[in-house]
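Run log // design_07
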């Protein structure tokens, strides 16, 4: 998506939120940038919600990811200030995957522009959806049926799956007894204890081609089905120079349409991704369908 078109998408959604506020909705979560005649403001009539999980040493991690270590290097009691010594993988917890995560030569997080961390949100709740076959793929037909009930996916959207995986947060993605015996990727997928659905690669490509989205997301540790050994949803999104925003929390508060999600990361040089604490700016009452 070109810079001008990308900025236009954000402006349209922000404008819609402002108009909603002007129409009599209670305004909360006002965001103001700059000062004077060039100041920009965005109101969130439904308030704002943090969509990131807390970072802690015992947090849920994807199998084989580096462990998270957090120690106090200095303390107020002994040193007059608190500074933590933190070791973590770049994809720990709620995080953003940049194209370079899967694509050789793909853009890294430090190469993404500021406006590429803001999207109109479109949430697809698949918690009661049934699937055909052994791999629980969300297919093109499922997305089109969802649009008929809830409205069309806007251009530039971040399309997020609510799979119910948030309920498993705090548990190992793979049971520890199984993980001790995991020798290869196939064993990992056989041992996965959180059978979340995910997009098929064909569905993600359709979303980029037909709906001109900018990325996909999920409350699971990826937008992929739990037993998709090819990570086809993530690969397809990143191959289209899009992003994946995963391990999201508090998706019950996110509206199907009309919200903004804002999720910048640290500008890690040559980084394949990084942890983030996304914010949802609600265009109306939270969690409406």
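design_07 sequence
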């Amino acid at each position: 998506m070109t810079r001008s078109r990308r900025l236009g998408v954000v402006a349209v959604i922000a404008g819609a939120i402002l108009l909603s506020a002007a129409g009599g909705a209670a305004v909360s979560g006002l965001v103001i940038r700059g000062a004077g005649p060039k100041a920009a403001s965005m109101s969130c009539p439904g308030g704002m919600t943090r969509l990131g999980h807390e970072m802690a040493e015992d947090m849920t991690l994807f199998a084989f990811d580096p462990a998270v270590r957090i120690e106090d290097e200095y303390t107020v009691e002994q040193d007059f200030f608190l500074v933590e010594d933190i070791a973590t993988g770049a994809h720990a917890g709620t995080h953003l995957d940049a194209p370079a995560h899967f694509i050789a030569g793909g853009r890294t997080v430090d190469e993404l522009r500021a406006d590429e961390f803001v999207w109109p949100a479109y949430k697809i709740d698949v918690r009661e959806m049934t699937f055909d076959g052994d791999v629980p793929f969300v297919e093109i037909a499922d997305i089109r049926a969802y649009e008929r009930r809830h409205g069309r996916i806007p251009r530039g959207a971040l399309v997020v799956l609510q799979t119910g995986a948030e309920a498993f947060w705090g548990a190992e993605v793979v049971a520890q007894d199984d993980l001790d015996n995991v020798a290869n990727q196939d064993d990992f997928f056989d041992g996965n204890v959180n059978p979340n659905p995910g997009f098929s690669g064909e569905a993600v490509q359709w979303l980029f081609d037909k709906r001109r989205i900018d990325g996909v997301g999920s409350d699971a540790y990826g937008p992929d089905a739990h037993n998709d050994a090819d990570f086809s949803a993530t690969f397809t999104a990143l191959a289209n120079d899009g992003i994946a925003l995963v391990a999201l929390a508090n998706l019950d508060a996110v509206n199907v349409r009309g919200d903004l999600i804002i999720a910048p990361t640290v500008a890690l040089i040559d980084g394949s991704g990084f942890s983030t604490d996304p914010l949802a700016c609600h265009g109306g009452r939270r969690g409406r369908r």
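The two ends are 28 Å apart (CA to CA).
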